[in-house]
Amino acid sequence: MKRTLLFLLLSTALFAQAYTKKHRVEDMQIMAKAMSQIETGFFYNNKDLVEMGVISLSDAIRRIEPPLEEKEEKDPMTRYMNEKVKFTNKIVKKIDQKARTILERFSDGDMAQAVQAYTKIMKSCMECHTQVRHW
Ligand code: HEC
Asked: What is the value of pTM for the model shown?
């Protein structure tokens, strides 16, 4: 009985850890929605919208992971050649930081800087899409 329970707990833990393509696509859609929310917030000068968008963007970007095969790749040369893990972590961190900048600058009334941070995020999204979208 105890063993079954342990097994069940273990399998849900394992299941929860696997970040699949399906999860990634869902998070991507959340981020696309968050970006347009932020943009609408800019146009209407609506802080609540900007804030909601930033929170949902940060929340989703922190979940983004490179493909599992990549993380589990044992051959150092293959890992080196692919570099997707490092690339992902770097870009994820950048988007997360810029999202915070948007909110800070917008709150300060510095629209130009807020929009610039938004544009930088947009560029990062595209940078990753051109490099690793074929995952
Ligand atoms: C680290 C890489 C990476 C970053 C950063 C990234 N994407 Fe993606 N995106 C992908 C990959 C890879 C796919 C294709 C899905 C897959 O194969 O896993 C994708 C697909 C998408 C899709 C299509 C989802 C669908 O329904 O098929 C949208 C929309 C999207 N991304 C939006 C964004 C937005 C908005 C950002 C920036 C805030 C962003 N992405 C940043 C890698 C990235």
From this structure: 0.85
Residue 6 alpha carbon to ligand 1 centre in Å: 36
User: In the chain, what are the domain boundaries?
Assistant: 2-132
The tens digit of pLDDT for each residue in 54-79 reads 999 999 999 998 776 666 777 777 76
**Domain 2-132, CATH among 3.40.350.10, 3.30.70.20, 3.40.190.290, 1.20.120.10:** 1.20.120.10
Determine whether the shortest distance from the Cβ of 126 to ligand 1 is under 6 A. no
For a substitution probing ligand 1, which of 90, 101, 125, 132 has the most ligand atoms within 8 Å of its CB?
A: 125
Return all residues near 92 (Cβ < 8 A) that are at least 6 apart: 61, 62, 64
Q: Which of 38, 45, 5 is nearest to 125 (CA)?
A: 38
